Amino acid sequence: MPALQESNAQKRKPEEVMEKPPLRSSTASIPISPYETSSSKAVTSSKSSSGPQQNAVVFSPELLRIYYDRLFPYEAMYDWLSYGVEKDFFNRREWSFTIQPTPEDEIYIRYQSFKDLEEFKSAVIKRQPNKIDIGAVFTHQPKDHNNLSKDVFHTEERELVFDIDLTDYDGVRTCCSGANICNKCWKYMNMAVKVMDEGLKTDFGFNNLVWFYSGRRGVHCWVCDESARTLSNDARSAVATYFELPLENEEKSLDLNTSLHPMLARSFGVLEPMFLDHLVGEEGMGLLSNQEQWVKLLKTLPEEARKAGIAAELDKEWTKRDVSPADKWKMLKSRIEKETKKEGAKKQRKFKGDESERLEMWPIETVFRHTYPRLDINVSKMQNHLLKSPFCVHPKTGRVCIPIDVSKIDSFDPFNVPTLPQIVSELESYAKENGESKNVPDWQKTSLKGSMQFFLKTFLNPMKNEQRKRRMEEKAKEEAFTGDF
Amino acid sequence: MFTSSRQSSSKASTSTTNFFYTTPPSYELSLEDFESFALSRLIVLRKIEELKVKGLDRNQYNDALKRVVNLQLPSSGPSPSAKKHNEKRDLASHFILRLAYCRTEELRRWLLTQELALFKFRLEDLEKRGGKDMSAFMKNAGISFDKITQDEKQSMQSQLRFNMSYRDFEASSFYRIPFAEAVDLIGRRLVHVRAGMAYVPGGKLVSIICARFRSHLSRSLAKAAASFSHVSSDTRIGPLLKNMNKQYTGRDFGKQHTVEGDMNASNVDEYAQRSMPLCMRQVHDGLKKDHKLKHDGRRQYGLFLKGAGLTMEESLLFFQNEFTKIMSADDFNKNYAYNIRHSYGKEGKRQSYTAFSSTTIIMGPRSNPSEVGSHHGCPFAHSGDASLAALLGKMGIGGKDRDDIMAHKKNKMYQLACAKHFEVTHPGAAKTEGVDLDGVGNHPNAWFNSSVQYWKNKEPAKKDMKGKINTPMAKVERAVVSPGSGTAKEVV
Ligand SMILES: [Zn+2]
């Protein structure tokens, strides 16, 4: 969870925190989640339906050390977050580290800043943070925040970020809950990413955006266009609420207007097929696969419609003969259509106006309730909100926060994301087969290769090219202005 | 809803004022207007703040706001000159408060919030009146939007038409506006957005214009803050500006709302002895001595008496009684009666004037003791140390009480000196039931009201106290002061 909240560590004097060297003892263990047995010294993989590495070590200080020494993409991160602008831009970025000097003690250090790549890299290697968070770019280097008044020291810009987490789907997913995930419920993430990615690009015209696996049970989106980075908090809130539907309350109606907003209409077009593919059938959430489930769903029909016997009729028919879940949905929809159509010469409706409207919107509301993105919008609303850095390793799963290729989102499998022990052993195997090749960057020797290439090719390099082009245009304009006439 | 913002009306609608406040006024303003204008606006803005927390519905809120705006900041008037005056008040007061509230983040945010609410209220009102007024307003404010062509509108029909009847859609123009300028509409999903541009129907432009006003005012406040120290170094308006946010708007002395006592022409003397602050006491005693009062004193004292509940008829009677000791009734009627009636709103612009606050008097013109009938001003601020000390002594105030008052005076804390004067002449007032001390030291009429409440409470002891206080006012020594012009130049 991205952190704005003050942890205990924040209340300590930063100097005090800074002086304390991180513990590097090989016997250090990390608090184990309630789902795991606590005998192990290092973290083992948590319960998963398709984890071949069940109970294997997924995270340890030694492995993390190798990762930070050889694999973490410092250069790419520095390149990205410098945006090719003024020299002190990177230096004014807030970083925060979560370090664990002893197993019982987790310290959260905010307001770190680094003047260049070297300083950034050596701080990470020295501190061995369990987690790295990225904050806003401030008016001054965040290191100095204690010496500056609030009038002077404030946020200047920040990527527009989105955080979607499967724990917010506990009201609809039937397979897992809490921190656990499986391939069934991961489909919710696919749906959310498709809707958000399309909306951010088509509606808001953002180009430079990239999605990351959060390392455990969700995804993050970083929108990096200059127009997004400079948005005010008000504008961020507006973008976030533009995409928001009040789904947190299962009882509350979404109050959809029969004349749907174009964004919602488009989203329905994307989500309904996924609803049918992944949620109604036995292999998904089974919403229409057995009587117990479909009765539950039919109960959500507006009361008047239920009284009129629609639910009972359908239930009878579906019990009588074998109808596929997708066909059940079709029948349900056409039945509703029939009921809400204006009939006869008098154009009279069977139900009262708003009752009829609610019935008409029921299929859309139902699809949205089960598929529409559930954003943690507080993360998006403020410039001064930290979010976990891409390419971190999640301490509970050992998985790297790698970028997600939205065009191939359907085949993204969170259980195939490279883990810390996996990539470290890949390094070793490579060395055995090819020797310690200094010419090949270490990440190319591991299964991070595909992710890194994707990141560079589809996000970082195009963005850098755009920046270069814009700088050249500006320069040309300047020269035309100051040149000879 | 206005379908064509481009229709150029040769004569702008007469009922459109430029409340976008693009250009500051360039005229001079009397110090009195300076403060009274600002107070009018403060009353409105504070009312807005108060109404917002009441949880009223939209109509109740608008009605309540309309009442106070019509009373304090009307944008039109019964005659061209009254309208002009009202427009001047609106424009000047906005810029005065902009300057007074630019100093701190907190003040800026407060002003921004209330001004935006006032702006929105007026803009919606304007919009109800139709396209012509709205177009004129936008033209005045230099606002224009990128209207999409009919072809574009038709080609985007399926996206633009949501939530709109066919007829409304046909009648609407659509404007292409960067989404960051339409955050309110975007956040509530009220408009279509494509490639970073919001497509806003004419009927929803109010929201966009409000957002522009907000950023315009926000930027202006930041700019004003940067130059505040320069402006506030002006010794006349500086203190006014710095104290504006603490200004007393609780009661409006002069509109004869709640006044204590039963003042009439024959008992003014009695009230002067017991319940008037030093500034009024000084004018009163001067009037009794000279049977004459110069303009500034008549205004200061006349409006005070009006605020203290003296009716116009009684006021005419009171001044006539004094003045006719050295002139004929005819002369009095010819030269002075008009002004008194005027200050009650019965002549000229028919504006009802309100009594001066302490700040106005302190910042206002000083009296010239060498002139007969010149007794106005604030004795704490305008008199020399020696003469004030002597004056207090003659009023029976000595020892530590006098020292305390003099200490405030020397620290230039004139209003504290005045409040101290109240304290020593009304022992135990703070603990006396029914005495509201709010405003003592800020407004002479508050001082007066509190005093009357006090004496009402002490009624059984009235006679004793009366005897004690009723020391004959000796000749008031006055400090030599330079006359002030009473005009604030190029304030804003
Ligand atoms: Zn699951």
Automatic annotation (TrEMBL), chain A:
Main enzyme class: transferase
Keywords: DNA replication, DNA-directed RNA polymerase, Metal-binding, Nucleotidyltransferase, Primosome, Transcription, Transferase, Zinc
Positions with biased composition (Basic and acidic residues): 12-22, 471-485
Pfam hit, one: DNA_primase_S
GO MF, one example: DNA-directed RNA polymerase activity
Compositional bias per record (Low complexity), positions renumbered to this chain: 37-50
Region (Disordered), start-end ranges: 1-54, 466-485
Biological process (GO), any one: DNA replication, synthesis of primer
Cellular compartments per GO CC: alpha DNA polymerase:primase complex
UniProt xrefs under InterPro entries: DNA_primase_S (IPR002755), DNA_primase_ssu_euk/arc (IPR014052)
EC number annotated for this UniProt entry: 2.7.7.-
Keyword set includes Thylakoid: no
Family: Belongs to the eukaryotic-type primase small subunit family.
Protein name (Swiss-Prot/TrEMBL): DNA primase
Gene source species: Triparma strigata
Lineage: Eukaryota, Sar, Stramenopiles, Ochrophyta, Bolidophyceae
Automatic annotation (TrEMBL), chain B:
Cofactor(s) demanded: [4Fe-4S] cluster
Sorted UniProt keywords: 4Fe-4S, DNA replication, DNA-binding, Iron, Iron-sulfur, Metal-binding, Primosome
Details of cofactor binding: Binds 1 [4Fe-4S] cluster.
Binding residue positions for [4Fe-4S] cluster: C279, C378, C418
InterPro entries, per database record: DNA_primase_C, DNA_primase_lsu_euk, DNA_primase_lsu_euk/arc
Domain DNA primase large subunit C-terminal: 270-448
Pfam families per record: DNA_primase_lrg, DNA_primase_lrg_N
One MF term in the entry's GO annotations: metal ion binding
GO biological process, one term: DNA replication initiation
GO cellular component terms attached to this protein's record: alpha DNA polymerase:primase complex
PANTHER family: DNA PRIMASE LARGE SUBUNIT
UniProt similarity note: Belongs to the eukaryotic-type primase large subunit family.
Known role: DNA primase is the polymerase that synthesizes small RNA primers for the Okazaki fragments made during discontinuous DNA replication.
Protein name, UniProt field: DNA primase large subunit
Species: Triparma strigata
